[in-house]
C-alpha cells in the first residue's frame, strides 16, 4: 500500500511499518524511547512490536495505563507525565503510543504538552483507531463523562498501521471500529458505503483495502480543513447524539457502558431520521441506512428518562456556538450539511423512531 501523506505527517501500512519506524529512529536518534501501552496491548501487541523495533543503544522504557474509556483522564495523564519526568525524558525523547483510540488520544496529548511538546508516533491497534484516530491530529482526554473536552490538535510524526494487530481484537471492538467506516461512506462516498453494508459477508482479505480507503477519505477532509472551521465538521455525523449517548451510558451505574462505535451507530440512525424530517434525505435512503446499521449493531433500549438526560448533555457538544446545538445532517448519502439546528421535539421523535425499530 502506498503511504498516505497528511498535512504534517505520513501514514505507513503493513510491510513499510517497521522499516519506516526504524529508519526514523536511526535518523532522529531520540534520547530515550518511551512506549505507552494499556493492559491489553501490553499483553497482546507489545511483544511483537518490541521484536521488530531496532533501537540500538537507545534506552526503551514501557509505560502501562489501564485499558478503557473511563481511564482517558487527566489523572492518567499526570501519571504518564510524572513517569516521563522520573525517567529523565527531555525534548529529544520519543513517545510511541501502541494501542487503541484511548492510548493514541491520551498519549498524543501527553506528548504534545510535556515540555511544551516532544515527538510522538501513533501505532493504532484497533480498527477504530486505524480509521478514525490515525489522521487529523486530535488529541485529548475526557472531562468526567464528557468526551474529549480537553485536548489540542497536534499531529504525530508518523502513524504506523499494522493490520495484523486486528487479530488480537474481540469481535465487539471490530464492530465498534466498523461504525466509523460506515460514517465515512455516509458523509463522503455512497459507493464506499455500499461496499461496507454487507459486513457479515465481508471477506477478511478485503479489509485492508477498506481501511486504506477510510484513511484516504478522512485525510482528504482534514487536509482541506485542519482546524474544523467548515468541512471537517462533517466527520461529526452521528456524533452529536452519539457522544451524548456514550457519555450517559458511561456515567450511569445502572447502564452497561457502550463502546464508542456502538453509541455512534445509534447516533447515525437518529441523525439520519432527523435528516429525513428536516432535510432532503429520502425515505428509501433512511431505510437503507437504518437496515444497514442494524445488520451489525444491536438495538439498545433508551427510555424517556434516558432521552431527557441525553438531550441535556447536548449542550456540551464541541460544535456548539453561542449556546446553539449544531448538527451534521444528510441531504443524501454522501451529501452532508453542517451547522444544522434541530428542535428537542424532533430529537424526541427520532428516539421514538429508533425505539420502534425491530
UniProtKB/TrEMBL annotation:
Organism this protein belongs to: Winogradskyella luteola
Sequence ranges assigned to domain 3-dehydroquinate synthase C-terminal in this UniProt record: 177-320
Function in brief: Catalyzes the conversion of 3-deoxy-D-arabino-heptulosonate 7-phosphate (DAHP) to dehydroquinate (DHQ).
Enzyme Commission code(s) on record: 4.2.3.4
Cofactor: NAD(+); Zn(2+); Co(2+)
One Gene Ontology cellular component: cytoplasm
Matching InterPro entries: Dehydroquinate_synthase, DHQ_synth_AroB, DHQ_synth_fam, DHQS/DOIS_N, DHQS_C
Pfam families to which the protein is assigned, alphabetical: DHQ_synthase, DHQS_C
Keywords assigned: Cobalt, Lyase, Metal-binding, NAD, Nucleotide-binding, Zinc
Name of the molecule in the record: 3-dehydroquinate synthase
Taxonomic lineage: Bacteria, Pseudomonadati, Bacteroidota, Flavobacteriia, Flavobacteriales
GO MF term (any one): nucleotide binding
Stretches assigned to coiled coil: none
Gene this chain is encoded by: aroB
Single Gene Ontology BP annotation: chorismate biosynthetic process
Stretches assigned to the 3-dehydroquinate synthase N-terminal domain: 63-174
Top-level EC class: lyase
Amino acid at each position: 500500500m502506498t503511504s498516505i501523506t497528511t498535512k504534517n505527517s505520513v501514514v505507513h501500512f503493513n510491510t513499510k511499518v517497521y522499516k519506516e519506524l526504524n529508519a526514523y529512529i536511526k535518523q532522529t536518534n531520540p534520547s530515550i524511547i518511551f512506549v505507552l501501552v494499556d493492559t491489553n496491548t501490553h499483553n497482546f501487541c507489545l511483544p511483537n512490536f518490541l521484536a521488530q523495533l531496532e533501537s540500538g543503544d537507545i534506552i526503551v522504557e514501557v509505560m502501562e495505563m489501564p485499558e478503557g474509556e473511563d481511564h482517558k483522564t487527566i489523572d492518567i495523564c499526570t501519571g504518564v507525565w510524572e513517569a516521563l519526568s522520573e525517567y529523565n525524558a527531555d525534548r529529544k525523547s520519543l513517545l510511541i503510543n501502541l494501542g487503541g483510540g484511548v492510548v493514541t488520544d491520551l498519549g498524543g496529548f501527553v506528548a504534545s504538552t510535556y515540555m511544551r511538546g516532544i515527538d510522538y508516533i501513533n501505532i493504532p491497534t484497533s480498527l477504530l483507531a486505524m480509521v478514525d484516530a490515525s489522521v487529523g491530529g486530535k488529541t485529548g482526554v475526557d472531562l468526567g463523562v464528557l468526551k474529549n473536552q480537553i485536548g489540542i490538535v497536534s499531529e504525530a510524526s508518523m502513524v504506523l498501521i499494522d493490520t495484523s494487530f486486528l487479530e488480537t481484537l474481540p469481535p465487539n471492538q471490530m464492530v465498534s471500529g466498523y461504525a466509523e467506516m460506515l460514517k465515512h461512506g455516509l458523509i463522503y462516498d455512497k459507493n464506499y458505503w455500499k461496499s461496507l453494508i454487507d459486513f457479515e459477508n465481508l471477506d477478511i482479505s478485503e479489509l485492508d483495502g477498506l481501511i486504506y480507503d477510510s484513511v484516504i477519505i478522512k485525510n482528504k477532509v482534514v487536509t482541506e480543513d485542519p482546524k474544523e472551521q467548515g468541512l471537517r465538521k462533517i466527520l461529526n455525523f452521528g456524533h452529536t447524539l452519539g457522544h451524548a449517548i456514550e457519555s450517559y451510558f458511561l456515567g450511569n451505574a445502572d447502564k452497561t457502558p457502550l463502546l464508542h462505535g456502538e453509541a455512534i451507530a445509534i447516533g447515525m440512525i437518529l441523525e439520519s431520521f432527523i435528516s429525513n424530517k428536516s432535510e432532503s434525505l429520502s425515505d428509501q435512503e433512511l431505510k437503507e441506512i437504518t437496515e444497514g446499521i442494524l445488520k451489525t449493531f444491536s438495538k439498545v433500549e433508551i427510555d424517556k428518562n434516558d432521552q431527557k438526560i441525553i438531550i441535556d448533555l447536548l449542550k456540551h457538544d464541541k460544535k456548539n456556538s453561542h449556546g446553539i446545538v449544531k448538527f451534521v445532517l444528510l441531504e443524501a448519502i454522501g451529501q452532508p450539511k453542517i451547522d444544522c439546528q434541530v428542535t428537542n421535539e424532533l430529537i424526541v421523535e427520532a428516539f421514538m423512531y429508533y425505539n420502534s425499530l425491530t
